[in-house]
Amino acid sequence: MKQDMIVILDLGSTENTVLAREIRDMGVYSEIHPHDITVKELQELNNVKGIILNGGENRIVDGQAVDVNPDIYDCGYPVMSVDHPTATCSQQLKALPEQDVLKEFIFDQCKAEPNWNMKNFVADQVELLRSQVGDRKVLLALSGGVDSSVVAALLLKAIGQQLVCVHVNHGLMRKNESESVVEIFGEQLHANLIYVNATERFLGKLEGVSEPEEKRKIIGGEFIRVFEEEARKLDGIDFLGQGTIYPDIIESGTKTAKMVKSHHNVGGLPEDLQFELVEPLKQLFKDEVRACGVELGLPAHMVYRQPFPGPGLGVRCLGAITRDRLEAVRESDAILQEEFKKAGLDQRVWQYFTVVPDFKSVGMRNHARSFEYMVIIRAINTVDAMTATIERVDWDVLEIITNRILNEVDNVNRVCYDMSPKPPATIEFE
Ligand code: XMP
User: Fold this and answer.
1) Cβ of 279 less than 6 Å from ligand 1
2) 310 CA: nearest ligand 1 atom
3) 123, 235, 284, 392: most buried by Cβ count inside 10 Å?
4) Is the minimum distance from the CB of 426 to ligand 1 under 6 angstroms?
5) Distance between CA atoms of 246 and 417, rounded to whole angstroms?
6) CB atoms < 10 A from the CB of 38, how many?
7) 373 near 328, Cβ under 8 Å?
């Protein structure tokens, strides 16, 4: 293994991830583990150089302060305590450590090397994946999103043709998205890729369904069924690859932290399909996942994609999905993406897309009355997607986009700009 590690033991701080980030930013790899980790578990971790006990406001659980297993003080690792001081610690602090104190602990006491970088991460993961998987096979649902693409590239480097990728095109992908997955993974990287065009099947199931949650449920459920059918056709698969990343694990709650949301990546796979999980990105933050993708040679447009909901354009073609409106969403979205890029807005705006409501308005085309759909443009900025503000897009840019949509997209005679922040609106419409 190439990387030294500082272990943070979670004693109820809400700042664990901030501290882990700070240490990683100093070039030293850091992981957060539960306070009651055993000595054996600690010793099984690779290259541990020191331990930080990170206490905080959630330390009291059921009226009692949680504490670490006292045996860890005898393991020979330097230990630093932040907050709830303990006499046996080699250092004691009151709040998040100052940078220079942290540096002194990490580099002078622990003698950790600043050797955390993506090149080493990839090299380590390749080694780990090869020993975990051996000569067996891994199945991966490859949506083309950042996380699944990076997992695919990493697994491909580690185990090559023992990786079987399944790309399900549910017909709700953005323009050229599925083609790009096939082009990059199938043709350029020569991955073992099964492409399933399930467009008719999904659109059939969704016909006439207008209730947003019902639509989401159908899309999610059908996705699992298609994936399961493909999995059953294959022989000798032992592992399921997943694009789980660090925030997914943190948000699912630790022993002391409150649960933010439960995390299901491929939730609901039938129990008789039993796979061992392979989650090589589960220690990475989102920006580190992107850096890993770059290290693996994935194209920038794949690695720096904006978030895209699992149900895809299905929740942007509002109400009951029809093919003409779905095409209008897809085409108008492609124009928006192109023009934002030309104007340099793609570097700055967090998320931008179009939606098409399920009603028509009166207009005029070729000197005659028209009765056609409307495209709504939404462009927002946010840090964590919990709240959002709108982007004040330049009117000239909006006019160019509007003219292109009105000229190039069929069945559309009106373009609007959504001015609503979140809350009270959400980012998506459904
Ligand atoms: P809302 O609409 O809740 O969206 O303000 C917050 C962020 O989450 C994205 N989003 C999803 N992402 N699966 C996802 O992976 C989903 O089902 C889903 N729904 C919404 C949305 O695009 C925004 O960035």
Assistant:
1) no
2) 13
3) 284
4) yes
5) 35
6) 11
7) yes
Separation in Å, CA 66 to CA 11, 51, 55, 254: 7, 17, 9, 13
Listed in order, strand segments (DSSP E) in 182-341 are: 192-197, 237-241, 276-278
**CA angle, 426 as apex, 421 and 430 as ends, to 5°?**
140
Residue 259 in contact with ligand 1 by CB distance below 6 A? no
Nearest-angstrom CA–CA distance, 178 and 174? 8
Answer yes or no: are the C-beta atoms of 62 and 12 closer than 8 Å.
no
Contact residues for 3 (Cβ-Cβ < 8 A; gap 6+): 29, 46, 47, 115, 116, 120, 121, 124
- CA-CA distances (angstroms) from residue 24 to 6, 151, 173? 9, 21, 35
- Give the three-class secondary structure for 148: helix
Angle at 112 between CA 111 and CA 117, to 5 degrees: 160
How far is the C-alpha of 22 from the C-alpha of 31, rounded, in Å?
A: 12
pLDDT of the chain, 430 residues: tens digit per residue: 678 999 999 988 888 888 999 999 999 999 999 999 999 999 999 899 999 999 887 788 788 888 888 999 998 999 999 878 444 455 545 456 788 999 999 999 999 999 999 999 999 999 999 999 999 999 999 999 999 999 999 999 999 999 999 999 999 999 999 999 999 999 999 999 999 999 999 999 999 999 999 999 999 999 999 999 999 999 899 999 999 998 777 655 556 555 544 444 444 566 676 789 999 999 899 999 999 999 999 999 899 999 999 999 999 999 999 999 999 999 999 999 999 999 999 999 999 999 999 999 999 999 999 999 999 999 999 988 889 999 999 999 999 999 999 999 999 999 999 999 999 999 999 9
Q: How far is CA 248 from CA 197, 245, 381, in A?
A: 29, 6, 21
Q: Which pair of tokens denotes residue 405?
A: 């949509």
Rounded to 10°, the helix 286-295/146-159 angle is 40
Instruction: State the Cα–Cα distance between residues 322 and 327, nearest whole angstrom.
Output: 9
